[in-house]
Every structure is written in C-alpha cells, then in structure tokens.
C-alpha cells in the first residue's frame, strides 16, 4: 500500500468511526503523515444533539461530551495507525472549533513514517510570534518547535508553558476547568492578535490548541487556506 493509500485508509476509518459513535460522519476527513506526526483535519462534523446544544449556547457541555467520547476513540484510532503504518503513536491530541465546525486529531509517532515537508516559511518568525502571543496570555514558553506538515498545516509544540497558579489548579483537580478556560482565552488571543497571515502569506482557516498538562506541553495546529 502506498503512503497516500495508507493516509486515505486512516481517514476513511476515522470518518466511519465518528459516524458510528455520533450518528453523523464528517463532510471531509483528511490525514497527512510527515516524519513523526500524523494529522487528521476534520470538517463539517456536528451531531444533531450538538447542533441543538450550540443553538442554546451550551458550548461547554458540547466540548466536555465530545472530549470524553473522542478520548475514548483515540485509543482505537491509535491501534489502526499502528497496524497501517507499522509505527506506534506515543502521544495524541485533539481540538475542535465548534463555530467553524472543524477539528483536528494529532498523533506523535515513535518512528519516522511519512516524508519530510520542506517549508520556505520563516520558521523563526513563526516561533517569535507564538512566543509573543503566549507572553500576552501567560508566559513565553521555555521551548518552541515548529513542524511543517504540508503547505497548509503547521504544528507548533510549546514546552514549559504553565505558570504557577495553573500548576496549583491542576494539583487540586481543576484540570478540565483550566483546559476549557485556556482553550477560549488562548485561541482568542492567537486569532485576534497573531500576525500569522503576514508570516505565512496565506489566510488562516483554523487555529487548534491542546495540552498535555502532565508534561507541561502544548501542541498547536495552524491550518492555512490552500
């Protein structure tokens, strides 16, 4: 099976799995594998129940329920990735943009699988901008790494991002509340104040952010208009 066929197979599997669990599948589901990352970008995916909850402004409940179900499904998807690509997914992340009706699944792979994408974007400018916005919300991360996945997808990994009060909230069991609050706050700043369209010279369609609080680490996915 060619690399493209493998990506298509994983996309198809995820699409069918979402349809089975939520009663409605996504309009599009596209997987890209580049070196140590697998990224699946999902569009047009809201279940009838979620649609009604959003109409009544219950975004928090949609976010919480989807987080529980998707986290459960990620273990199954991880197995499919392992069988299809022959590599293990050691970490995974997901995030959703409910107003845009889109989402992303991100897997860190233990072995290089896909081909490297060589970007001509000024990566230093990307990381300086991510550091600048991060400082407006909390602090400049200890380390920022950028992984170009394709001409329209860039992953940015931030390590050492949590401030003391956030660490204290996590220790006291307020992890979900902190994640929901950070999700709203950080995305608002990155969308409103980020100069990414100037840096990438393309329109930004989506910015997704997820965290691994135990490792004090965050993954961002910037989706650009092709």
Which helices and strands appear, and what pairs or packs with what?
Blueprint: H1 3-22, E1 28-34, E2 37-43, H2 48-55, H3 59-85, E3 89-97, E4 102-109, H4 123-137, E5 143-150, E6 153-159, H5 164-171, H6 175-193, H7 196-200, E7 204-212, E8 217-224
Antiparallel strand pairs: 1-2, 2-4, 3-4, 5-6, 6-8, 7-8
Helix pairs in contact: 1-3, 4-6
| Strand arrangement in the largest pleated sheet | 1-2-4-3
* Number of beta strands: 8
The mean pLDDT is 92
Low-confidence stretches: none
Query: What is the CA-atom radius of gyration, in angstroms?
Result: 17 Å
How would you spell out the order of helices and strands?
HEEHHEEHEEHHHEE
Structural class designation? alpha+beta
Number of helices: 7
Largest sheet: 4 strands, antiparallel
Report the portion of residues in β strands.
Answer: 25-35%
Shape: globular
As a percent range, the share of helical residues equals 40-55%
What's the end-to-end separation, in Å?
27 Å
Description:
With 226 residues, this protein is an alpha+beta fold. Helices cover 45% and strands 28% of the residues. It contains 7 helices and 8 strands, in the order αββααββαββαααββ. The protein has helices at residues 3-22, 48-55, 59-85, 123-137, 164-171, 175-193, 196-200; strands at 28-34, 37-43, 89-97, 102-109, 143-150, 153-159, 204-212, 217-224. The strands form 2 sheets. Strands 1-2-4-3 form a 4-stranded antiparallel β-sheet. β7 (204-212) and β8 form a beta hairpin. α1 packs antiparallel against α3 (59-85) and α4 (123-137) packs across α6 (175-193). It is globular, with a radius of gyration of 17 Å. The mean pLDDT is 92.
């Amino acid at each position: 099976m060619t690399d493209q066929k493998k990506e298509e197979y994983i996309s198809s599997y995820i699409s069918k799995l979402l349809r089975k669990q939520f009663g409605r599948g996504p309009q599009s589901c596209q997987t890209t594998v580049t070196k140590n990352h697998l990224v699946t970008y999902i569009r047009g995916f809201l279940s009838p129940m979620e649609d009604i909850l959003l109409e009544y402004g219950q975004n928090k409940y949609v976010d919480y329920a989807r987080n529980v179900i998707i986290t459960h499904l990620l273990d199954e998807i991880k197995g499919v990735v392992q069988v299809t690509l022959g590599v293990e997914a050691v970490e995974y992340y997901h995030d959703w943009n409910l107003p845009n009706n889109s989402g992303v699944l991100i897997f860190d792979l233990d072995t290089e699988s896909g081909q490297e994408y060589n970007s001509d974007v000024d990566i230093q400018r990307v990381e300086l901008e991510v550091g600048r916005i991060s400082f407006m919300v909390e602090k400049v991360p200890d380390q920022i790494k950028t992984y170009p996945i394709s001409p329209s997808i860039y992953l940015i990994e931030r390590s050492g991002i949590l401030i003391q009060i956030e660490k204290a909230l996590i220790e006291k069991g307020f992890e979900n509340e902190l994640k929901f609050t950070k999700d709203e706050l950080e995305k608002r700043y990155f969308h409103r104040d980020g100069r990414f369209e100037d840096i990438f010279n393309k329109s930004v369609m989506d910015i997704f952010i997820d965290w691994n609080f135990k490792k004090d680490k965050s993954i961002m996915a910037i989706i650009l208009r092709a």
